[in-house]
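Need tokens for this chain, all 428 residues.
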Amino acid sequence: MNALRSVPLTKACCFATTWITLMSLSIPASANDSPAPAAPEASHLALVREVLRAVPLIDGHNDLPWQFHKQHNDLTTVDLRQGSHQLPQPWATDIPRLRAGGVGAQFWAVYVPPELSPAAAVKMTLEQTDLVHRLVKYYPDTFELARTADDIERIHRAGRIASLIGVEGGHSLGNSLAVLRMLHELGARYLTLTHTKNTAWADAAGDQPEHGGLTPLGEDVVRELNRLGMMVDLAHVADDTMRAALRVSRAPVIFSHSNARALCDHERNVPDDILRETARKRGIVMVCFLPGFVTNSARDAFRAATEERKRLATLYPHDPDRAAAEMKQWRQTHQDKTTPTVSDVADHVDHLRQVMGIDHIGLGSDFDGFNGAVRGLEDVSKFPVLLAELARRGYSREDLEKIAGLNLLRVMREVETVAREGAAPSAP
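Here are the structure tokens for all 428 residues:
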């Protein structure tokens, strides 16, 4: 694949593109059977523009590093100034669309498969962390590494996008608190306690329970996260793990990309009793755009696709290209006719507000971590569409500022305060 080269966009050009696009965003048409959502009104987009000038829009989860992993971690294979349209399956993330979406800070997910051995998982996690560091250096006019809430606000004021690291899965630690400490040194600011499979010390959502939540080592991981000033992320974990972490953690926790189970009964989503406890502990749930976590019909389609992917992997263990080709064909013949819309995602925000309060909601898209998209939220340029829909529903400017980023900044600062106040030595 030929590397793409271009002259970097200037900061002024980027901001002009952002605000022009915010005023002209519309929802693309689709052959989908569900009715198309209405295009946002200009007055609501104007309010969103003011909000995103004042506060950084913080997205809690984007899997762009894993997309580069598929390109052998070679940053020259895709020029993010131009986009990834030359790939068979274009990505949802590039610099012009980040600017158009008003993104002020991005948590880049450092993900590795949970099936890896501990040693292999640690090695690949370091490679993915290295990728984020190189990404920031490769596009210095756009990205800057952030480690604190103050960093995010400073970088946003400077017109760049604050880049943070979130480690997606406790298997990345190789069961070592020393590895956790080194990842923190490298800039990691949250750890998702599990991915789709149990670790040796925590139960995952969707896997068979082994530990009843957290083992003593799992509790030590949570305490060490508190001591370091890293956020405890409960996306992907089993309900008992959520409850145990909420009990152990002295700092607020986050769900970096999860929704309300009352509206979509998927084990990855959060039940109301845990929503209330998360709010009581001053935590935050960051609403996810993965269709299978938004509506029950999309959940069923998502599960069917997951099972088909497993079947093809078993059928063609040594021919991943054929498995991918047949999976693509399967998707074409099993299209979900009730794909969620931006309105369905806004319904999750409404439910979180009703159960938790406005101070406990954020955004965690999971872009480039899934196939398909919510209609109206197809890529990183579309964050303003969701905020405009919330404005249409009566959310105030202050409400939108909190959801866009202020709530997450508040959580980060409280986590940082707990770390400063906790003078206890590190666990072995």
